[in-house]
Design goal:
five-stranded parallel β-sheet; alpha/beta; disordered N terminus; 2 domains; Rossmann fold; Glycerate kinase, domain 2
Length: 384
């Protein structure tokens, strides 16, 4: 394909040979996989003269909701089912994943807020004990590397329950294992920006509980720092998951990374987009917050780096409408989201095309229905 001469035709959809689709979920509506599949269906409706393009769909996650499913799908892992305790110490069936010598732990499998009925939520009682059980189970299977997703927790106890569940084995795990935390939370453990003040209210804490939880976190950090001779309570991410981030950072020397960036590295995204003509990403709603480290922005960064590293790619012509100016090169990158604010900011950041799939006149409650959202995506891509 002569990319120089086909630039305009490509931006209208026809002529693309390799398309990567990597969207976040439309939260509360469609999973990452469902969004990707809908976009792929729309792509297949394009009336191109060329043969059907190669379409590669990649499930995405930022380390929160659905993290286990996404990482296992992307990394081709296997599921392990165990009996463990939820945040109220009730027996449940939980899952984690194994990929080679790495365990994928989603803490919400045991310590998840969604597992607790609203009237029973109490961060003064909720425990991360079940997280420790999952880690111990994987450790006894020979796993020595852990990727831990910290989203969706019901707890605010700094990981004390997790450590207790491990018993004295936490010392062996500290020596023999490595941990990478998938989380976009950068809050410290204590203070007005810490775990208790920022996150505990949504877990059922009133003002008095918040103060008690913060005091408890400070005391635990003081005791821990005296034991180890260093203090990680101010480290970015220490306040994630009610202080579980702190326990991993302080006790296991964990590395904290943005969940989306971690996944992109684990699946070798930079290699996958080599020779791609188009990368499509998106989320439920895109605005200026998107450009502050959310999944679409991180994918855009990788695409721009790919362009920069391949100077032989020829720039495409400027287009009217929703194509940015000045010229851009391959692969193109489209932002396809349920709703879009600050469209020009998206184009200025580097997206070649910005598509809102929800019609302006459609009420939000209607647009959030899965079948409606799916049809909106297919129609928007088909008519791009």
């Amino acid at each position: 394909m002569d990319r120089k001469n086909d630039g305009l035709r490509l931006m209208d959809g026809a002529g693309y040979k390799k398309i990567i689709i990597a969207c976040d979920s439309y939260k509360g509506c469609l999973s990452s996989r469902e969004v990707n599949e809908a976009i792929a269906s729309g792509v297949k409706e394009w009336n191109a003269d060329d043969a059907s393009p190669e379409i590669i769909t990649l499930e995405m996650s930022d380390g929160g909701e659905g993290m286990l499913d996404v990482f296992l799908s992307a990394m081709k892992g296997v599921r392990v089912k165990i009996h463990a305790h939820d945040a109220l110490m009730r027996w449940i069936e939980a899952e984690y994943g194994i990929v080679d010598d790495t365990a994928i732990i989603e803490i919400a499998q045991t310590a998840g807020l969604a597992l607790i009925e609203p009237e029973q939520r109490n961060p003064m009682k909720a425990t991360s004990w079940g997280v420790g059980e999952m880690i111990m189970n994987a450790y006894r299977r020979g796993v020595r590397r852990f990727i831990v997703g910290l989203g969706g927790s019901a707890t605010s106890e700094c990981g004390i329950g997790m450590l207790k569940a491990m018993g004295d084995d936490w010392k062996k795990i500290r020596q023999k294992c490595s941990f990478v935390l998938a989380s976009d939370v950068t809050n410290p453990l204590c203070g007005e920006n810490g775990a208790a003040y920022v996150f505990a209210p949504q877990k059922g804490a009133d003002a008095k509980m918040v103060q008690m939880l913060d005091d408890r976190a400070k005391k635990f950090a003081e005791v821990s720092s005296r034991h180890f001779g260093y203090d990680r309570s101010e480290a970015p991410g220490a306040g994630a998951a009610g202080g579980l981030g702190y326990a991993f950072l302080q006790y296991f020397n964990a590395e904290a990374r943005p969940g989306a960036e971690l996944l992109l590295d684990e699946i070798g995204f930079d290699v996958l987009i080599l020779n791609a003509d188009l990368v499509i990403t998106g989320e439920g709603h895109s605005d200026k917050q998107t450009l502050m480290g959310k999944l679409p922005q991180r994918i855009l960064e990788h695409v721009l780096k790919c362009r920069e590293s391949d100077k032989s790619h020829v720039a495409c012509s400027q287009l009217a409408g929703d194509c940015k100016s000045p010229e851009s090169s391959f692969p193109h990158v489209w932002l396809v989201s349920g709703g879009v604010s600050d469209r020009q900011a998206m184009l200025d950041a580097g997206f070649d095309r910005v598509i809102q799939v929800t019609p302006e006149e459609m009420p939000l409650d209607e647009a959030m229905k899965p079948d409606v959202a799916r049809n909106n995506i297919i129609k928007a891509i088909k008519n791009k």
